[in-house]
Design a protein that fits this description.
- It is globular and about 45 Å long.
- Helix 1 (about 15-30) packs parallel to helix 2 (about 55-65) and helix 7 (about 155-165) packs parallel to helix 9 (about 190-200).
- The protein has about 230 residues and is an alpha/beta fold.
- Strand 8 (about 125-130) and strand 9 (about 130) form a beta hairpin.
- Helix content is about 40%, strand content about 25%.
- It has eleven helices and twelve strands.
- The strands form four sheets. Strands 2-7-1-10-11-12 form a six-stranded parallel β-sheet, with helices on both faces. The chain has a two-stranded parallel sheet with strand order 3-6.
């Protein structure tokens, strides 16, 4: 199973996990790979016109994966409050069954070359009770792709994430530095170089603001899908 499931996590919320995830999915499809996407739980969802909650990230993943599955399968749990899934679900009176998430992901992974699972926030964000996305990666036998948001403080966040993954025995495929703003300062301009000096985990790509993530990530698809 390892190598067929890729769990995309971030150094924080708002660092571009969905943007990078969609880039990976499109790049893999362009390379002739079959793909599927899962966003097990999305929080901060807005009400839709016809009722229910709209999963913006889930919808983006659904489209990037080719739209072959119902959106409710891609993103089965949608919660209104912008909190960690465990707490948003508790406040909404929703029970999250992690065993079902794991089973569903395993079933779908057996049908495609790559199942991409996007987390919420960072690696240790809880999905249910004390069960985190790190636990999900372990139970899925998934490789990790870490999205590092280019901003001041990212070195510490990136190294802590990579250390937490290593401490849990997780397989990290590499990390991507994502520039969320067109404005550069010394911290963001030097981030990729700094991380190369500080960790042996491979830098797979540096994505400039407004660039085509799929084109940039195409060269690393053989590393991510193996």
């Amino acid at each position: 199973m390892s190598g067929r499931i890729l769990l995309v996590t971030g150094t924080d919320t708002g660092v571009g996990k969905t943007y990078v995830s969609c880039g990976v999915l499109r790049a893999a499809r362009a390379a002739g790979r079959t793909v599927a996407a899962r966003k097990p739980a999305e929080t901060g969802c807005e009400p839709g016109r016809g009722g229910g909650l709209v999963a913006a990230d889930g919808a983006a993943l659904h489209e990037a994966a080719g739209g072959g599955e119902p959106i409710d399968v891609v993103c089965p749990i949608r919660l209104p409050e912008p909190l960690a899934p465990a707490f948003a679900a508790r406040r909404a009176g929703v029970a999250i069954d992690v065993a079902e998430i794991v089973a569903a992901c395993r079933r779908r992974a057996g049908e495609v070359d790559l199942l991409l699972v996007e987390g919420a926030g960072g690696l240790l964000v809880p999905i249910a009770d004390r069960y985190t996305y790190a636990d999900l990666a372990r139970d899925l036998g998934a490789r990790l792709l870490v999205v590092v948001g280019a901003r001041l403080g990212a070195i510490n966040q990136a190294l802590l994430t990579l250390e937490a993954a290593a401490g849990r025995g997780l397989d990290v495929a590499g990390y991507v530095v994502n520039h969320m703003s067109a404005t550069r300062d010394l911290a963001t301009a030097s981030l990729a170089v700094s991380l190369r000096e500080l960790t042996d985990v491979p830098l797979l790509a540096e994505i400039e603001h407004g660039s085509d993530a799929a084109s940039i990530l195409r060269s690393v698809i053989p590393e991510l899908v193996r």
